[in-house]
Design goal:
Layout (H helix, E strand, L loop, with lengths): L2 H4 L10 E5 L9 H15 L3 E7 L7 E7 L2 E8 L1 E3 L7 E3 L4 H12 L3 E4 L5 H11 L3 E5 L4 H4 L11 H17 L3 E4 L2 H10 L6 E2 L20 E5 L8 H10 L7 E5 L5 H10 L6 E5 L3 H10 L2 E4 L8 H8 L4 E4 L4 H4 L6 E4 L4 H12 L3 H16 L3 H12 L7 H11 L1
Parallel strand pairs: 1-2, 1-7, 2-4, 7-8, 8-9, 9-10, 11-12, 11-14, 12-13, 14-15, 15-16
Antiparallel strand pairs: 3-4, 5-6
Helix pairs in contact: 2-15, 3-4, 8-13
Length: about 425
């Protein structure tokens, strides 16, 4: 075991059999899938027996098998799935078979606790069947129904408001069955409570192993802006490309977009139409080493998304010692402290985004060094071991204090 594992307050307690239910997992690449892999790996490293229920990604991956993720082995129960029409990677399990599949897997695994990561399909089946068997239920919400509409082409626009409401009602039903409910940030917890009848939602950071990133404080040889994430509508990457087009050419700023997704072709076409094909690089999906290399070479990280419930990629950038320019939306202000480790811009405002990026790229060396150090300091509080400690307490039925709420009380008292 590593020294970090030995420091766990749960050391010496009986190991648990933990079943994680996920509607998205590797090889799908997104924040929720990344969190699940790191959570499962951390729990396995602590000696727990970890099982994951997730969609298959081909006919060859159906059934129960041992897979290795983040350097740890875990048991996967891959269920038959279909690819979402018109989407390059999104898959979904059969809703009409989820209760039957959940019952079969629960009777086979006999877990001590079920931690479901989505209410959409697998969470509904796991909470219904797990509740019947008296299994402890813990739920984490990574989902906003508004985002799903980007892929719901068959829903007419005039029905989308009703579809969003129905989405939240479905979420409320599944999460109401859980003993504990979490979200990655306090802002996301408040959002879930505002849209459902679920209460006492605890904010637990997705966590990051900051030691796995090299906090590079050295000056960078070029003005490179880096974005990391899935190329989808809510990320608003087109605004980032447009912002680059109106920045002072004397800066010779370049943009590297790391990640893949359904908008890759459109974004390439946009860069070409703006005459930026020699200054904008779209890498597509990359391995972890390539991702970290891009963050090491970057001068500033940009996150224009308007729908982040935490943003693991922003935390990865901060752990790499980068200042951040991010949209003042959802949970991003939780990570980006305006004027301290970066700047917040008005969501969707291309001119404001360009101005904030220009400010960072033209800061004096001693000023930018302060921003870099502050990014490292802020992300240190999101250490993955704290996240593992909190979830392990929940799995054991122990009382957990919301660290975000406790921080607010301390601020008010000071």
């Amino acid at each position: 075991m590593t020294s970090a594992v030995k420091r766990s307050p749960h050391e010496g307690k009986p190991r648990l059999r933990i079943l994680i239910g996920a509607d998205t997992f590797w090889p799908q690449i997104n924040g929720a899938a990344t969190f699940i892999a790191r959570l499962a790996a951390g729990l396995a490293e602590r000696g727990h027996d970890v099982h994951i229920v997730a969609p298959s990604y081909s006919n060859k991956t159906l059934g129960t098998m041992v897979e290795e993720h983040e350097g740890q082995k875990m048991t996967l129960h891959r269920l038959y799935s279909w690819r979402w029409p018109g989407h390059p990677w999104l898959r979904f399990m059969m809703p009409w078979r989820v209760k039957q599949n959940s019952a079969r897997i629960l009777d086979q695994v006999k877990p001590d606790v079920i931690h479901f990561q989505s209410h959409i399909i697998v969470g509904r089946g796991m909470t219904l069947e797990g509740g019947k068997r008296g299994i402890r239920l813990v739920g984490t919400n990574h989902f906003m129904p508004e985002n799903l509409l980007d892929h719901a082409y068959i829903i007419p626009k005039f029905m989308r408001r009703k579809a969003i409401r129905m989405g939240w009602e479905a979420a409320g039903r599944s999460f109401a069955r859980a003993e504990s409910v979490t979200t990655p940030t306090r802002r996301a917890a408040e959002y879930l409570e505002a849209n459902t009848k679920v209460r006492n939602v605890v904010a637990v950071s997705c966590g990051i192993n900051a030691d796995g990133y090299n906090g590079n404080l050295d000056p960078k040889p070029e003005n490179l802006i880096v974005f990391l994430g899935r190329l989808s509508e809510e990320k608003q990457i087109d605004r980032l490309i447009k912002a680059l087009s109106i920045m002072d050419p004397a800066l010779n700023a370049k943009l590297e977009i790391v990640g893949g997704g359904e908008l890759e072709g459109k974004l390439r076409a946009l860069a070409q139409s703006l005459g930026l094909e020699d200054r904008v690089t779209l890498t597509g999906f990359v391995e972890q080493d390539q991702l970290r290399d891009a963050l090491q070479r970057g001068s500033v990280f940009a996150m224009p998304s308007i729908a982040e419930l935490q943003s693991i990629s922003t935390m990865e950038a901060m752990a790499s010692g980068l200042p951040v320019v991010a949209a003042d939306a959802m949970a991003l202000p939780h990570l980006v402290h305006d004027g301290e480790n970066g700047f917040l811009f008005e969501p969707g405002n291309v001119e404001d985004l360009a101005a904030k990026l220009t400010t960072v790229l033209t800061m004096a060396p001693e000023e930018i060094l302060k921003f870099k150090k502050e990014s490292l300091a802020i992300v240190a509080s999101h250490d993955i071991q704290r996240t593992l400690d909190t979830f392990e307490s929940m799995y054991r039925g122990e009382q957990v204090t919301d660290p975000a709420a406790l921080g607010k009380k301390n601020e008010s008292a000071s």
